[in-house]
Every structure is written in structure tokens, then in C-alpha cells.
Amino acid sequence: MQVQTGYIYHIKDEFFNKINDKGLMINHENGRARPTYFTIKDKNILWFIPLSSKVSKYKPIIDKKIKKYGSCKSIMIGKIANNDSVILLQNAFPILEKYIDHPHMINGKPLKVIDTLKYEILNNFKYLMALKSQGTNLFFTDIDKIKEKMLDEIK
């Protein structure tokens, strides 16, 4: 499988069993494989950003952050496959390709996010990573610990 930035994927349960981080979103809900993940390819590591259809749950959170800080880069709402989707950058985490179960398919084709949204997500992710490197961590998962485990597996 050729994994590319900007495509949507599903994860194997094996990853969640191995990592066991309370900050990770659950992989299954009501018998369905969830959530789907926007992918950023970064050398041997992939970054997965969970997507949610629960716009009404996250819209007030986004509005509150905008009111308090002037912007919100940790949660976004964008159109993916003609539906409003919540992009939960705050829940991003590193992963390896071997833990990908399958690409999310629509009409037999892997789902790709439109370029304008892809670049907005990438810019916000880079911003959050820059904040983290300066000591302000907005990620819910322990991305350093997970990345270390992933890099150990590559060795």
C-alpha cells in the first residue's frame, strides 16, 4: 500500500492494544470502524489526525477557543467527501504503516482531502508542533512516548 499525505485511513486494533494511551480515541463505536484518520507522511513515521462527524459537539468548543484566544488551530471543521467533518489535530499521534488496516474508500477509490483543506491542516499541524517544541503542548496523547515506541519498532 502506498500511504500518502492527505488521504484517509483506518487503523488496526493491534495499534491501540500495543500503545494503550488514554488520550487516543477509541477505534470502534457501535460496531463500526471509527474514526477515520487524515494522514501526514513524515519519513518513516506517519501522523494520524482523527476525523469526527460530530460537528455540533465540537463547534461550541471551537467558538469558545476563538473567543478566548482569537483563533483555534487544534480543532477544525472542513468538508471531506461533501460532508462537514471535525479534524481533531489535538488528538494527532504518530504511527507506522504496518498498523494501517485499509484506506477509506468512496466509489472504489481511496478518499483524498481536497488540496486547500489539506494545506490548512498541514499548516495548523506544523503550528501545533512548533508550539510543542517551545513548551506549549496542545496534544492530548503523549506523542513523544508513542513516537519513541514507533521508532524502536523500526530499528
What this model shows, in words?
This protein has helices at 13-19, 55-69, 115-133, 143-154; strands at 8-11, 28-29, 32-33, 37-42, 45-52, 76-80, 83-87, 93-95, 100-103, 105-106, 109-110. It has 155 residues and is of the alpha+beta class. Strands 1, 4, 5, 6, 7, 8 and 9 form a 7-stranded antiparallel β-sheet that branches. A two-stranded antiparallel ribbon has the order 2-3. Strands 10-11 form a two-stranded antiparallel ribbon. The longest helix is centred in the C-terminal third of the chain and has 19 residues, at 115-133.
Essential attributes:
155 residues; alpha+beta; seven-stranded antiparallel beta sheet; two-stranded antiparallel sheet; 4 helices
Concise synopsis of the structure shown:
The chain is 34% helix and 28% strand.
The protein's oligomeric status is: single chain
How many H/I helices?
A: 4
**Taking all residues together, what is the mean pLDDT?**
91
Secondary-structure element order, as H and E? Answer: EHEEEEHEEEEEEHH
Shape verdict: globular
Distance between the termini: 21 Å
Structural class: alpha+beta
Q: Quick one: biggest sheet?
A: 7 strands, antiparallel
Helix content: 25-40%
Question: Approximately how much beta-strand content do the residues carry?
Answer: 25-35%
Radius of gyration: 15 Å
Number of E-state strands: 11
Flag low-confidence runs: none
